[in-house]
Design a protein that fits this description.
The protein is built from three helices and four strands, in the order βαββααβ. By secondary structure, the protein is of the alpha+beta class. It has one domain: 2-Layer Sandwich (Alpha-Beta Plaits), CATH 3.30.70.100. The protein has a four-stranded antiparallel sheet. The longest helix has 18 residues. The radius of gyration is 13 Å and the shape is globular. The N and C termini lie close together (10 Å).
């Protein structure tokens, strides 16, 4: 299994709107791709960055599921995030593999 993590650092003044929008739109759209079986939304408590930092985590059962998301959905969905919060956030993603 694989964990796809999107770390988001958002300006403090936009954090409330970000939470509302992500919960109402973004997570559901990612889950609707059917590439992931579950998700988590976390706030980073000890972030060294200015603003508020969050982690959006999505679990893929196979590398093929993640690759499907990466190739067919990621750019469009992240573009929606950046359009909604233009100049108010930065993101970076990582892929992690669960170990036995």
């Amino acid at each position: 299994m694989y964990l796809y993590n999107i770390t988001v650092i958002v300006e403090t003044d936009s954090a409330f709107d970000f939470l509302q929008w992500v919960n109402a739109n973004f997570v559901d759209k990612i889950m609707q791709t059917e590439c992931f079986v579950s998700n988590r939304f976390l706030k980073i408590v000890d972030s060294p960055n200015d603003g508020v930092s969050y982690c959006l985590q999505f679990i893929a059962e196979t590398l093929e599921n993640y690759s499907d998301f990466k190739e067919n959905h990621e750019q469009t969905l992240l573009a929606q995030l950046y359009t909604q919060f233009d100049q108010k956030l930065v993101t970076f993603s990582t892929l992690m593999e669960f170990l036995p």
